[in-house]
Design brief:
Blueprint lengths: L8 H10 L4 H10 L7 E3 L5 E3 H8 L2 H9 L6 H6 L3 H10 L14 H7 L5 H8 L1
Antiparallel strand pairs: 1-2
Helix pairs in contact: 1-2, 1-3, 3-4, 7-8
């Protein structure tokens, strides 16, 4: 197994922080350091967040889709925001308790669907059942 150098934590914080709303900066940082794609930042107290997670709760579909195109691993929260009803339904059918799950910053799954707007309306209705 190859011994790799860790990514600079300040770079991780910048990447995740900018994923809340600055697509151009996210692109710039990811081009400079591809390893950021799967990096997570702890804002304190175990409040872990990835760039995809940041984009998801902010309703930034453009950033989320860019990250997914680059190979980010989709999660329940991003799926809800993006209106991926089949995926959300499949996950919740396997683990119904996740309907009450909270993502980064303690933001509930329902809020992620709300952030998705009209494209996530079916997911929102499903979560409200």
């Amino acid at each position: 197994m190859e011994n790799k150098t860790a990514i600079n934590p300040e770079l991780v914080q910048q990447f995740v922080g900018n994923a809340h709303g600055d697509l151009d900066r996210v692109r710039e940082l990811l081009e400079a350091e591809p390893g950021l794609l799967h990096a997570a930042w702890d804002w304190g107290g175990g409040d872990w967040e990835t760039a995809l997670g940041a984009a998801a709760h902010m309703g930034r579909k453009d950033i989320a889709l860019y990250l997914l195109e680059k190979g980010a691993r989709i999660d329940l929260f991003a799926a809800a925001m993006l209106g991926k009803l089949d995926l959300v339904r499949a996950i919740l059918n396997e683990n119904p308790a996740l309907k009450q799950a909270r993502g980064p910053h303690g933001i509930p799954l329902l809020n992620h669907a709300e952030a998705g707007g009209a494209e996530a309306a079916e997911v929102l209705a499903f979560l409200r059942e």
